[in-house]
Amino acid sequence: MSEFLLEIRSEEIPARMQARAAEDLRRLVTARLTEAGLAFAAATSWVTPRRLVLAVEGLPAAQPDQTVERKGPRGNANETAIKGFLDSVGLRRDQVELRETDRGAFLFAVLKRPGRPTPLVLAEIVPAVLATFPWPKSMRWGTTPFRWVRPIHSLIALFAGRPLPGGLALAPGAGPGDAAFIPFGATTVGHRFLSGGAPIEVASAADLYAKLRAAHVLLDAAERRATIQGRAEALAQAEGLILRPDPALLDEVVGLVEWPVVLMGRIDPAFMALPPEVLTTSMRTHQKYFALQTADGALAPRFIVVANTAAADGGRAIVAGNERVLRARLSDARFFWDQDRRQRLEERVPALSRIVFHAALGTLGDKVARLQALAAEIAPAGCDPALARTAALLAKADLVTGMVGEFPELQGIMGRYYALHDGERPEVAAAIAEHYSPAGPNDRCPSAPIAVAIALADKLDTLAGFFAIGEFPTGSKDPFALRRAALGVIRLIIENGLRLPLRPLLLSAVTLYQEGGLGTGPTPAAVADALLDFFADRLKVHLRDRGVRHDLVEAVFAVSAEDDLVRLLAKVEALAAFLGAEDGANLLTAFRRASNIVRIEEKKDGRAYSERADPALLVAAEEKALQGALVAASTAIGQALAAERFVDAMVALARLRVPVDAFFDRVTVNADDPQHRINRLRLLSQIRSALGAVADFARIEG
């Protein structure tokens, strides 16, 4: 058993594409190995900014021999057909078998094909994988049609320590010696600055790993990550500081360096008066610096920079250069900070009417007017509608400030600072900062009443507008992030326990568009219905992630198109607990039995049995007991549901188990007497009705 080693060395691969590329390389090559009948023991891939590497262990020297059967014409077929078959398999008449089948006697050829040497198979697999590699974006270079993420410089392709025959043709017909042909080799180079560029000959994955390390390349991304994390924390600790966690930035920086050198720089004290978010955004977004903080959580006047090279002076010049660049960026930020505060947020609102929200949905000025009306209508308990209107008026005003123009990531955050500077109430300023939240499943959900009102209004307005003009998410495409907006609404309502029926709010949101002459088309009721269906789908996804069964959500939704999410969730939780108990599981079985009997008999008779059973026709003690239990349960369930005592409703359902079981044990539904048969079918239909008041049990799985 031998090892296959592949290294694709190129110019810089974007950091965001690296992890996926390493996995795709492993997946695509191993899939083709399996198709070729080449078993292997393990496959490992690595990636750096300038190389993709794959090592496959435990490969045989050749494919296994194969035996293939080919079925030919009937044994008594004409000579032309038989000759054509023999020519196609390369055999004589006496070398094929005549075999009896259930359709008669047919000729069969048994062909033995020796396995091809593994190097020849690999030499075909590698170009095929590279030619179809699924980069999110790729490029051509020179005049060749071949596409890759960045120009390829060299290929290592070794099997058992020897280069594969051939190479990668970048253009049709290109061969050895052509500029458009990259041969499979056994050499690479190390770090582009630190290794001197001398060729490195390798014989195996372990050899490549060790020699690249000696040439200042850490092949394993996990090792680069640990190196950066460990050295940054050590530098911070030496200064009595703490490294601010930033996993996303760490992942990105790992993809920018092959030999991480971690250094610490200083922030000019003159800039520490800027809002900390401005400092961290400038450092993180533009410069890829890590922020540090003091023990009490305050931003420290230091930063961590990760260089891709080691300097003879210990990095002093690198640090000085980065401090100089940061100083220039922060000077711009301070200019915007000083300039923006010269004008009140309220005075900036008219400028929003010059910014298009969507061609069919008006301007941001139009949106702000709608937000004011919606926020005042939503205004949950503890929320002053007048303050909600004020927060809605100012929520988007920071979009026309210089700071947000330079740092779009700070929208909302800067609005809070400017609102506080203008003397607005703290809760209004906080609502401006938080109204975009939650921006994702892991984002914190606002809880302050005014912030919740503005966040809900913003998301409901967006959803209503785009649904009104027919811009729905389709498949994986959701250009306006409507799924995220719906999930945000769901979280805001559920996590804050808001008793806030959605349908009236959706009707108001669509009506506000139409009153402004925008988003005209379907009626508000039709748009609201479509949105409620959309929310139902999003709610199922949200609850499934929390471990709640989607079929229970469907079962509860089907009964009343519930638009009070808190009430719906309480029903679902009570139903889940009920079905998890013995009585609930048995009653579900009985429901299915009753439903199946009624459905079959209704189809056979061509009529429905939805009327109430006639008490005068009840003969057996068990059917009388069931009738009484159903009447009592229906009354109790109705009262419990009206009072939102959903656990009590499930208790009432549980009381049906004993009489239902007794009925099925001792009563014949399809009695000889037609009147008794019809009455008993009506009684079974009442079981469906009683349970149907709680949920559509037919939608429950399992």
Describe this structure in words.
There is one protein chain. The strands form five sheets. Strands 1, 2, 3, 7, 8, 9 and 10 form a seven-stranded mixed β-sheet that branches. The protein has a four-stranded antiparallel β-sheet with strand order 13-15-16-14, with helices on both faces. The protein has a three-stranded antiparallel β-sheet with strand order 4-6-5, covered by helices on one side. It has 25 helices and 18 strands. It folds into five domains: 2-62 and 117-214, Alpha-Beta Plaits; 66-113, no CATH class; 221-340, no CATH class; 363-547, no CATH class; 576-699, Isoleucyl-tRNA Synthetase, Domain 1 (Orthogonal Bundle), CATH 1.10.730.10. The protein is of the alpha+beta class and 702 residues long. The longest helix is centred in the middle third of the chain and has 25 residues, at 316-340. The mean pLDDT is 91. It is flat and about 100 Å long.
Query: Could you report the average pLDDT, rounded to the nearest whole number?
Result: 91
**Residue share in helix:** 40-55%
By helix and strand content, what is the structural category? alpha+beta
Largest sheet: 7 strands, mixed
Count all strands and give the number: 18
Strand residue percentage:
5-15%
Number of helices: 25
Distance between the termini: 48 Å
The geometry reads as: flat
Q: Could you say how many structural domains there are in total? A: 5
- Give the C-alpha Rg: 36 Å
Report low-confidence residues grouped into runs of 5 or more. none
